[in-house]
């Protein structure tokens, strides 16, 4: 899930130079910082303000060896932002990708927002990054002009060099120190026009691909922190259960055991190896107190959600009939491939943690509070580490808090690993939900109104939208934060008369979190499935109905593209059908066409056609990968993957019973077509899930004649 600002709160994707401030940072080599501002004058380099007073500082540095370093204040979780940042910097500095290093920033209060989620990383950072790199290029050119005593306007840049018309060349490394002393650049520091791009917009492989496949890339558990002992935790059978008593005598006597520590969440065991730690954990004798959800099972939860829907509202005047749709969605685990993990070292009055967190500043505050240092969070250093998937789960920092407490108790560093069972049964989940959608029809098939009421347990946003104020609000008033986020992000992109969408929050003691596309993963899916139901009621083609009612030209364009590329309406064999759906969110628009075969009794996806308008496509290959992955996620949760709650315990414990699709279930073709309407930078990570799930559901409804209303469709454990 890029940083956490609703679409209308995020900075514009298009580069407006007046909105970015750049300045020279005091340094022996060239370092340019940039930040985004609301009402800034035309950017100009200046003497650096005190670093502790600046916010959202993006640093682009040119070193004397010619290496270019860009600071990334977000977490790489597989979404490819490292590559996108390198491409933007290489583009503006006219150098190769192999000359750019991207460094992840530690948790730092100087950053306005460090939260990685809601598809806003590149929307938020692309402009400042381009501004900083362009400023650096202008200063390098000016430095070369001074050295050669020529007009700066006569010089060009290419392949990491400044070049003169007479053939003289100077590498950026040779000019770095001189460029740092330039008072004002003598050429324009404006970023390039997108029409000049030669790197950005080109399909590019990941800059870290080789490191990942060779094992060179370091994830949290790969780190070699001296003295860190492998650690695991015995956890209760129910959600948020607690320890009543325990006997660790047998465990302490086992080979390699370093120590046993009681935590609020369970009992930790540290040993010389993980195998020894797991064995000793299993030897613990623990009496558990049940968690607050121990009285709840699936049937109870569904009943609570349905009861929260309430009576029907009165339809608009002139309504001749009302069409109703009901939909049920399950709890979902985020299930990233890398489970929660953390390395922590607490010594005296300072703490240091390494973990793949999505909001390092929130992690810092949570660790500080757990250690009793809430008023002095600066005593905690958080190093964000590359993560193996996040999807919203890594906003929560249980692993970091646990590791810090264990390290302090043992008096040495620890390397804490959650097992897959821990991950599945003790996480934070996309909440279950129940939906009622009413469409009021008038004379001649007119649509007079649309009313969607969604009953959803409160989504926890203790991290807020990435800043201190909303984080405090999210912790003090979680229901208010959840409702505000719903109101800011949910909309119906059709002319359907009087439109209303309401959230009925249902307080349930089951931990929740944002999941890929947050509320839209349910509300948006239900909407697009109901549009197809409405088309059937009106006896209209679902594509034609959408075209006639869509309010967004971008949505019309992507819909037209998938209809064209997917050959919508062509003759298909019995039991084979197509479905479509659209979504506009995170400054982007997308449409899916899914073709499905139900002749075997089990739906089989034959192909997926995607058209997306994300504005300026920084790396089309990365966008394609993101959208293909999101489509497979949507297929999994629509068809087979979901959680069940049994007396406050999560039934599923691994991928053996959390039925994510396997490679054999993937369609032979997932085509991605980019439709570009402007040069804004739109979000991608959240974008590809909702309309993929809805298009698949619509295809199954057309193939079988029955609209699915409860998910996952192939729920064997219901």
TrEMBL record:
PROSITE patterns: TAT. Residues 214-292 form the Aldehyde oxidase/xanthine dehydrogenase a/b hammerhead domain. GO terms for molecular function: oxidoreductase activity. SUPFAM superfamilies: Molybdenum cofactor-binding domain (SSF56003). Transmembrane segments: none annotated. PANTHER family: ALDEHYDE DEHYDROGENASE. This is Xanthine dehydrogenase family protein molybdopterin-binding subunit. It comes from Corallococcus exercitus. The lineage of its organism: Bacteria, Pseudomonadati, Myxococcota, Myxococcia, Myxococcales.
